[in-house]
Amino acid sequence: MAKSKFEYVRQFEQDDRCLPNCWLVVRVDGKAFHRFSDAHNFEKPNDKRALDLMSRCAERVMDEFKDICLSYGQSDEYSFVFRKDSLVYNRRASKLMTSVSSLFTSAYVFHWPEYFPDSMRYPPSFDGRVVLYPSDKNLVDYLSWRQADCHINNLYNTVFWSLVQSGGLSPKQAEERLRGTLSSDKNEILFQEFGINYNNLSPLYRKGTVIVREPVPDETAPAEGGKKSGKQKCTKLTSMNVDIIQKDFWNKYPFLLDDVS
């Protein structure tokens, strides 16, 4: 950048570099997506096309940012986990948040025709935030919180829309019917009145989607002298709809919590 007498204004820029040795999570959330989903006639309580589109956008973000080891999404949100040792954008929070959010949003528009036959009525927007988690337990608890949120919201929405679509209630009546009910009450309504066993519903809706960056065995011969070639490790993205609250998931993918790549 050419120097000039005006360059002093850079002194007003804020240094927002994130602390080192912390898990760095960027979460994107759809802005006013209740209105957006109504305007585009999303199926209730879940639209598989919309959820698949969200995951396609997440894969696009992970293709761009190789330091993202895992992402988790449900409804209109996705969380991207950057490794503790990531130095992307010198760990500047504003750059990470805006870059991930803007890429996710543009991917949503770009891939929309692959999932929906009708054109968008207006452009979507996603906000973003950056949160640091200093320990592995903090990170696992964060992701567990998001998956618990998925279950709570999906159970409510499944009962709510069953009452409206099959039970003959208005949205207001359904809301009043469910006020103060527990999870057990909602499961009872689903089974007794609509013959629905909640546990038999698709795990996509009950668990959300987790995308893992898995290492791929390097089958190429070592460089001369037996030393590693220095090339970046090969990886692949694996998408699944599983329980990430229990330890089984983390035991199956122990490399996710390694401190260094």
From TrEMBL:
Keywords: GTP-binding, Magnesium, Metal-binding, Nucleotide-binding, Nucleotidyltransferase, Transferase, tRNA processing. GO terms for molecular function: GTP binding; magnesium ion binding; tRNA guanylyltransferase activity. Mg(2+) 2 binds at D29, D76. It is an enzyme of class 2 (transferase). InterPro entries: Thg1_C_dom, tRNAHis_GuaTrfase_cat, tRNAHis_GuaTrfase_Thg1, tRNAHis_GuaTrfase_Thg1_sf. It catalyses: a 5'-end ribonucleotide-tRNA(His) + GTP + ATP + H2O = a 5'-end phospho-guanosine-ribonucleotide-tRNA(His) + AMP + 2 diphosphate + H(+). Residues 137-245 form the Thg1 C-terminal domain. Binds 2 magnesium ions per subunit. The keyword Iron does not apply. GTP binds at D29, G30, K31, A32, F33, H34, S75, D76. Mg(2+) 1 binds at D29, G30, D76. Its EC number is 2.7.7.79. GO terms for biological process: tRNA modification. Adds a GMP to the 5'-end of tRNA(His) after transcription and RNase P cleavage. This step is essential for proper recognition of the tRNA and for the fidelity of protein synthesis. Also functions as a guanyl-nucleotide exchange factor/GEF for the MFN1 and MFN2 mitofusins thereby regulating mitochondrial fusion. By regulating both mitochondrial dynamics and bioenergetic function, it contributes to cell survival following oxidative stress. Homotetramer. Interacts with MFN1 and MFN2; functions as a guanyl-nucleotide exchange factor/GEF for MFN2 and also probably MFN1. Belongs to the tRNA(His) guanylyltransferase family. This is tRNA(His) guanylyltransferase. The lineage of its organism: Eukaryota, Metazoa, Ecdysozoa, Arthropoda, Chelicerata.
